[in-house]
Amino acid sequence: MEATENRKAIIVGIFLALGLIIFIVGVLTLGSAQKTFNKSIHITAVFDDVAGLKKGNNVWFSGVKVGTISDVRFTGPSQVDVKMSIDEASQPYIHHDAGVKIGSDGLIGNKIIVIEGGSPHAPVVQDGDVLQVEKVASTDDMLKTLQQNNVNLLAITKDFKELSHKILQGKGTVGALLADSTMGIQLKNTMKNLETTSQSAARMAVQLDNFGKKINTKGGLADKLLTDTVTFNKIQGAIAQLQKTVNSASELTQNLNTASRKLTTTDNAIGVLLNDPKGAEQVRTSLNNIQQSSIKLNDDLEAAQHNFLLKGFFKKKAKAQADSLKKAAGGK
Fold it and tell me: How far apart are CA 248 and CA 25, in angstroms?
């Protein structure tokens, strides 16, 4: 009897020992999975909507689990503060400008926090830092977008159905083209004429290009005008001379016009002779009188020379003129 009780006690002791061992191993395993016994830092991110995120969910960085969510709580209207416990060994690789977003562990798995980005030049994240949240479209947003796209697609399908029906009935330009063979032939001819015009325009473009190349040919007139300053200066000088000639011709024309106007007036001798017959006759009479007076004066002077009273005077004057001529000849 006593041996049986001892055996039961031993069996119970063995089961208790096995249970204790299993409990300790489970705690160690669970703690290792949750990184409970590892040194860690705490960082925070503030979300408008955590989409079902809860305490204990994992935190991933570059595809590696680096921590867990230690707390989720409200801090204000539409503001949810999510505190993360990050393994201290991962701290040197996470920088302060890294972004935080909510993801899923698989297609329909638990929600997780994903840390990504960050510049190597930025400081390393420290305990108590707050990371910037990146906006990610939720499943509801995607479903709303898909639903709106379905509505738009339905409207487009409806419009296209009505359009195709009108086309088959011959309505509109496209329907008329499909139903009216005459209009189709006219459109075909129009397109042919347009093609001919396009070809002509292409040929004209080639001709203009050739003309431009000829103008730009080295040694040509355009090339000399643009590059040869001597030729350009000669042409400029010729233009200046031509301008002077034009100005001189204009001035000569003006003078001739002035002279012509004076010839048509009677305020000058020539004008009187040309336009006033009576005045011209008076001028001719005066000229005749002057000529007659001159002849008479010559006769009087001739007579005076033979007068014995003035004969000595004219001899002295003639002698003085002869002496002057001799002196002039001797001086030479």
Answer: 123
How do the domains of the chain map onto residue ranges? 39-139, 274-305
pTM as predicted:
0.36
At residue 39, the pLDDT reads: 84
In 3D space, the residue among 136, 115, 157 whose CA is nearest the CA of residue 48 turns out to be: 136
What's the token pair of residue 51? 């989409």
pLDDT in tens, 42-71: 999 999 888 888 999 999 998 899 999 999
* Angle between helix 172-179 and 181-215 (nearest 10): 110
Cα–chain center distance at 331? 93
Q: Which residues contact 231 (CB under 8 A, 6 or more apart)?
A: 224, 225
What is the rounded CA–CA span in Å between residue 34 and residue 181? Answer: 80
Predicted confidence (pLDDT) at residue 27 exceeds the cutoff of 90 = no
Look-up of token digits 């296209």: 160
Q: Could you give the C-alpha distances from 312 to 66, 305, 315, 321, in angstroms and in order?
A: 157, 9, 5, 14
